[in-house]
Specification:
This protein is an alpha/beta fold and about 300 residues long. Strands 1-2-3-4-5-6-7 form a 7-stranded mixed beta sheet, with helices on both faces. Helix 4 packs across helix 5. Bound molecules: manganese (II) ion (3 copies). The site of one manganese (II) ion has 4 residues, from loops.
Length: about 300
């Protein structure tokens, strides 16, 4: 597809997918292949939101301009509030912002330390070499738990990555190590400093009760958070109804994204999302995101 193609203009509507991963973090597709797949699935506006890195952005931007897809720069930052680990997506961040890049450096060190801790715990269980294999799986990316899961499968200690999490890698399991993530206030400040909007990612995915969601959203809004991911790849109608209610109650913008990682999990696909309730304010109308679409 040539640049300036009218391919997506001919589609009945614009499909936004504002959350996905490439090999720059724990995704399975390169930024180029990810953009091509998004385009094939009718996505016209994509945000690449790798965990704690913007390393995939430049390659994704080249691929996007080649096929006429609009790319919004993004990142998914790991953070904590009152012992709760959570993910905050930064949409519309300047990928060259020095404050953001410094934060990314810090997160890389947190991930490397956690990987060493997990490697040591797994070695104690007799799984020597899994740490080295996880680093090999990560390649140029920072090591994440899915890389350890793949390494455990590779070494034949478990059958599937799901089993690796269930038996060893989840919180409370013998291969799990905590990570000293930066706190929520600082994380949101970095996103804002880089010109982006802070979006609380997959809010139904943490196992929080409604009361906890309200308490955490109060803190999130107090720190400068402005949006909630109301529609995710795995959202049920109930999830969407609940999260729409929270978005209205707190006056938040609403975002949507598949959180696509891999073609091997076909129940999550780029651009395949339930409709967002029409009365919500979509994030693409917010200046931090709209600025990238006008360009
Ligand atoms: Mn991931
Ligand atoms: Mn996440
Ligand atoms: Mn994600």
């Amino acid at each position: 597809m040539m640049a300036g193609s009218t391919h997506y203009a001919a589609r009945p509507m614009t499909i936004f997918d504002l959350h996905c991963h490439s090999t720059a973090s724990d995704g399975r597709l390169s930024p180029t292949d990810l953009v091509a797949r998004a385009h094939e699935h009718g996505v016209s506006v994509l945000a690449l939101t790798d965990h704690d890195t913007v390393a995939g952005h430049a390659e994704a931007a080249l691929a996007a301009s080649a096929c006429g897809l609009q790319l919004v720069p993004g990142i998914e930052l790991s953070t904590r509030w009152d012992k709760h680990t959570m993910h905050v997506v930064g949409l519309g961040v300047d990928p060259r912002n020095p404050v953001l890049l410094q934060h990314v450096e810090w997160l890389g060190e947190v991930r490397r330390q956690r990987a060493r801790d997990m490697g040591a715990k797994l070695a104690k269980l007799g799984f020597t070499g899994v740490y080295e294999q996880a680093l090999a799986e990560a390649g140029e990316a920072e090591p994440t738990r899915p890389h350890f899961a793949r390494a455990l499968v590779e070494a034949g200690h478990v059958q599937t990555e799901g089993e690796a999490f269930k038996r060893y890698l989840r919180r409370g399991k013998p291969g799990y190590a905590t990570a000293a993530w930066p706190d929520l206030e600082q994380t949101i400040a970095v996103i804002r400093e880089a010109g982006g909007m802070a979006v609380l990612a997959h809010p139904h995915g943490y196992g929080w009760t409604g009361a906890w969601v309200r308490r955490i959203l109060e803190a999130f809004v107090g720190c400068g958070g402005e949006a909630l991911e109301v529609v995710c790849g795995g959202s049920t109608p109930n999830d969407i109804r609940d999260m729409s209610g929270h978005a209205r109650r707190f006056g938040l913008y609403a975002s949507q994204g598949s959180d696509f990682h891999s073609p091997a999990t076909p129940w999550i696909e780029l651009g395949r999302l339930a409709p967002m309730p029409a009365d919500l304010k979509p994030v693409w109308q917010a200046p931090q995101v709209a600025a990238w679409l006008a360009a």
